[in-house]
Amino acid sequence: MLCAVVSLSLMGCSSDSDGDSGNAKGSITLSGEETSVVGTSLTVGNILEGAYQTGTTKSVTLTHKSIDIEDGEINPTTASLVNSFIIVTAQFDDEDNAAATKAISMIIIKNGEEYRFVCASDYNGGSDELDCGSGFNVDQENNQVTFDDTTVENTETGKVLTLNGVVTW
Known about the structure:
12 strands, mainly beta, 2 helices, disordered N terminus, globular
């Protein structure tokens, strides 16, 4: 379900925002069993706020510097298919009538291999997706995404990565 968001992001659909390409600042530190494969940090190069491809204005997409955002769209032709990442984050309130209050769908590409991770907080759809944790916050008003012991689960192996860091734009 959430992985579809990342797949759609790579397709370069239209956006309802102008994006903020090149304005992102911040790194995310990774810990957990799979860091030997995916690495221990991600440096965010670009962001896209409220992207059409996610289906909600409450989303913030964080990308590797190799993924350009042009005219409010992710340009998939610029993405490194060897080493790259896309993290789609979202946070909803009661008026949004969403299935979860917070969600992350991310893909990390290392040496050409794709690793997909997800989490959903307060998910009411009966899914067994891992809770993101209370330290995850998407604050579009203050242009900041916070990962404080935020947990995401590999969709194939079930192994958990913990994310820490703050990204601003």
